[in-house]
Amino acid sequence: MKGLTMLKKIISTAVMASSATFTMQAQADVSATVTLVSDYVYNGVSSTDGEPTLQGSVDWYNDAGFYAGAWASGLDEDSYAGAEIEIDYYAGYAGSISDSLGYDVGYAFYTYPGADDADGEYNYGELYGALTFNENTTAKLLYSDNYFGDVGSSLILYVSHTLSLPNEFSLTLEASHTKLLEDGGDMYFGPDAGDDSYNHWGASLAKSVAGFDLALSVTDTNIEDWGDIADARAVFSVSRSF
To answer: Domains of the chain (ranges plus CATH)?
Structure first.
């Protein structure tokens, strides 16, 4: 199950490495990132059923604040109606209100090539907006009118705070609340049809070493009826940007 936002870029356990960028045109840059992750987890739920996978992204951005990109990851095909890969596209604008307050607004579209349409339409779009205070505290809101295909409209609230630690380590604490805004059919987060929301929380310890970004994360949810994919877990990521 997915939704990130480019939230997925904020709460994904994939680690963003320090970027080496090249100039596309005046005041515009492109970067590419490759990540090996021990488990693709979004909002506390595994999309690879606990298995490792490769992830990658290509991002364009300019000094005016506009950006666009694409991100891809492997999937557990049994959980995604035969789809073995997720490819997401996104575009937005980021700026600042003051020296201590920044914002980010945009649109993301999530696709699952190869998914069997007989199991429903998986592709969907999502609007998002975020505020960041002092570059380390973020609140983000994501809205979809067709969450995960045929489920219906949804709202996700995400918050995170990053602490700088000795020896150039950083610790990020995060939490999110996912809410279905209408009847979601079989997409419920517990044994009862009324379980239309769930909470996720996690922590990630990160450090850059020799041009690679490393992170060890722990995550959990209060979902009761999804088996192992929503249980507490630890995730390791290593990432490099070019």
So the answer is: 6-241 (2.40.160.40)
